[in-house]
Amino acid sequence: MSETEISPEREPRAVCLPMLKGGFGKSIFANTLGGVLGELRNHDVLVADLDPAGHLSTGLGYYTREDEDTLDLGDVLLEDANPGDIIKQPGYGFDFIPSVNLETVTEDLARDSVMASDMRLKQDLVDPLLSDEYEYILFDIPGSRNKLVNNAVVAAPNAILPLKPVPEALNGMRETATKLVGEIRQHIDFEILAVVPNDLRARIDQQTKDRRLLEAMNTQEQFAAYLLAGRDGVDPDTGTLPEDVDVGEVLDNHIPPFARVTADEWAAIDEGEIDPPKIPIRHSAAFGDAYEERKPVTTYDPECSQIQHFEALAEIIERGGIYQ
Q: Which positions fall inside the AAA domain (predicted)?
């Protein structure tokens, strides 16, 4: 609900969706953002499914998970194969690397030295392709940490984090902050571009699951500490920030304007001074229907009302974050 301006700096960027919890909509975010950036905003985009479960791949019509005769990501990372040999063109405005043999790839990476194995995706896929071939590369990654997750956050140190209004949402955020973001920031500059509420459908002028998630995201120092995990003086376990860090400013810089509700605005909603807004991203049957049709929603239903909010996220990706 607040007004923000986004930094005008634009450059090619690799982005990951690294929530250490499944079921929050990462695959839908990946294919929808791929469609928005590619089909609607005319960028050259590559989307890669790094989850052995392959939900993103299934949603785009790629069903094979294990096939030892098929070239896969392991051939690129460990056998010097050409990345172009594993890239598909599904026809939805972006190119795609499906999930194939990823359990084996993860095991093979684990046999390499720690530093070398965590750099493979950056060195052998992202560095050769970003800028020269693609303006944006998006990685959908699994909900539990493994060598492919390590590779993804090193290769794509810019994160979009979707959260659903379910009881485990804040725990998933805590796990991601303490066990992934905080640790990786000890080694590289890793940015959370946006944390995005997803699949909302309830009123927020009552104590619903939607309200509890949105109010925590928009008001709590604990949540701000998750966002800054790994920064100097930040303790995500106790939820404390350095004295000179303003909680509201941290939240302003990580929550998209369409989902930002300040403490004063919550008070005004509760007093009946303003009507409770319907905060995006809303539940829409179009996402599930598109998945069943094996298409991104940008192709299946270009008039879906929620696409406009993914366009706002695409602009955040283009410009590298939200800035006051």
A: 16-187
Hey, which residues does 46 pair with through a beta bridge?
95, 137
157/293 Cα distance (integer angstroms): 32
**Distance of alpha carbon 34 from alpha carbon 21, whole angstroms:** 21
Distances (CA, A) of 259 to 4, 54, 195, 253, 279: 12, 29, 9, 12, 6
Q: Which CATH superfamily is domain 13-319 in?
A: P-loop containing nucleotide triphosphate hydrolases (3.40.50.300)
Among 91, 157, 92, which residue's Cα sits nearest to residue 122? 157
Q: What is the CA radius of gyration of the chain?
A: 19
Q: What pLDDT was estimated at residue 3?
A: 41
Among 144, 62, 130, residue whose Cα is nearest residue 96: 62
- To the question of pTM greater than 0.90 for the whole model, the response is yes
Between 171 and 22, the more confident residue is: 171
> Does residue 43 surpass a pLDDT of 90?
yes
Domain ranges of the chain: 13-319
pLDDT reported for residue 116: 67
CA separation for the pair 237, 109 (Å, rounded) = 31
pLDDT value at residue 113: 62
- Integer Cα distance of 174 and 168 in angstroms: 10
257-284 confidence digits (pLDDT tens)? 999 999 999 999 999 999 999 999 999 9
HEC assignment per residue over 152-166: HHHHCCEEEEEECCC
